[in-house]
Design goal:
Blueprint (H helix, E strand, L loop, with lengths): L1 H6 L12 H18 L1 H9 L14 H4 L3 E2 H4 L14 E4 L10 E4 L1 H17 L8 E8 L8 H9 L5 E11 L2 E4 L1 H12 L5 E5 L1 H13 L11 E4 L13 H12 L6 E7 L2 E6 L6 E2 L5 E5 L13 E6 L10 E11 L10 E7 L6 H12 L4
Parallel strand pairs: 1-14, 4-5, 4-7, 7-8, 8-9
Antiparallel strand pairs: 2-3, 5-6, 9-10, 11-15, 12-13, 13-14, 14-15
Length: about 375
């Protein structure tokens, strides 16, 4: 995986235009590896008439030509390209889609690439600091039965600075997770009296519910200078109650004294473990380690910039699981000219579609998978 290693070693994490050929070679390299080592992936590609060994040109269209796999397929079938014993980490999705979850394995090489990515993208956004912080984690407290990627990510984010304390809102009790708003509010009051900053990390839904609860009770605090709110994980089952970003920013300033400039949002998926970190204008710029294609929901053909469609995410990061090119149930659009100084295009997530609305995406691969004896 020499091209993968070169790609994740580029100096500028947002040099998309300067890494087109390198990305294409890394994608082709990754595709051939999975084709050779994963029988399910090989049968899908053969069924779709695609042979990675026939790729002879390496440009911006190479990755686009590689067949994608719908994320819903990973929730129904496990596919790996190496033995489990060679996967230091295995993570799952949160399982909000009818109880189905994706299980994705990560090889040692992908973890090293991920570390390089986080260091570069995180440094660009000022996530790292030598100043200790008190962490308020708006997500799951780790439990031996919880292998979700969002839990691992949130816990890993506490390594951005020296950690003084951790308080989780979702705690495991009597066989299930339950929210502990009272415990978090007490922790916030305690942290507001500290001389060290606080960092909120986790689900935007629970963060919003917390802020609304504190507003309704008339509770306001002034978090120490340098405090931040890091949002990631989406709204999941609370999507119908989703608040717009400006509302969250206003509440944060009013209730916690944390301004919009100190609110950072992330986008990602267990099936696409790339760190999309918003810029100062809150846009998700596409890093050099991935490519995003917006496809027509009916024809699945690539759309032009500015046109809304289904989000196809591509990265050659992982060898253990064939997540090279995945189709999400997100609707998005690619735009240029953010104005923040980052030159790469940015992805704007418009919303999500119901699983039965994207059957056309999964149809081809699903029909092939039915013939595979798992």
């Amino acid at each position: 995986m020499k091209y993968r290693n070169k790609l994740f070693s580029v100096k500028n994490p947002y040099d998309v235009s300067g890494t087109e050929q390198l990305f294409a070679r890394a994608a082709a390299e990754n595709c051939y590896f999975h084709y050779t080592n994963c029988k399910e992936y090989r049968r899908i590609l053969k069924g779709l008439g695609f042979d990675p060994g026939e790729i002879i040109t390496f440009d911006k269209n190479t990755a686009e030509s590689i067949p994608f796999i719908p994320t819903t397929l990973f929730k129904r079938h496990k596919m790996f390209s190496m033995p489990r014993c060679r996967m230091p980490i295995k993570a799952t999705s949160s399982g909000t889609s009818g109880g189905n979850i994706s299980e994705i394995g990560f090889d040692a090489g992908s973890l090293l690439c991920g570390l390089k990515m986080v260091l570069k993208v995180g440094s660009k956004r000022g996530l790292f600091s030598p100043v200790p912080c008190n962490y308020i984690l708006m997500g799951y407290k780790p439990h031996r039965g919880n292998r979700t990627a969002v839990t691992k990510t949130a816990t890993g984010a506490t390594l951005f600075t020296p950690c003084l304390s951790k308080t989780y809102i979702l705690k495991y009790r009597d066989g299930k997770y339950v929210p502990d708003f009272e415990g978090v509010i007490s922790a916030i009051k305690r942290c507001s009296r500290s001389c060290f900053p606080g960092r909120f990390m986790g689900f935007p839904a629970y963060t919003y519910f917390l802020l609304k609860m504190m507003e309704d009770r008339g509770i306001r605090v002034k978090m120490p200078k340098g405090s931040k709110i890091l949002l990631g994980g989406g709204w999941k089952q609370f999507y119908s109650e989703k608040a717009d970003k400006k509302t969250v920013y206003r509440l944060s300033e009013k209730i916690l004294g944390i301004g919009e400039e100190n609110i950072i949002e992330f986008f990602g998926a267990v099936e696409h473990p790339i760190l999309y970190c918003d810029c100062e204008k809150h846009h998700f710029h596409i890093p050099a380690y991935s490519r995003v294609i917006i496809r027509d929901p009916v024809t699945l053909e690539p759309l032009k910039k500015g046109e809304i469609g289904l989000v196809n995410l591509i990265t050659p990061m992982v060898k253990a699981t064939p997540v090279l090119s995945v189709m999400t149930d997100d609707l998005g659009v690619i735009r240029d000219n953010c104005g923040c100084g980052i030159k790469s295009p940015y992805l704007e997530i418009i919303g999500r579609v119901a699983p039965d609305s994207i059957k056309t995406c999964a149809a081809g691969a699903e029909e092939i998978m039915k013939k595979i004896q798992l």
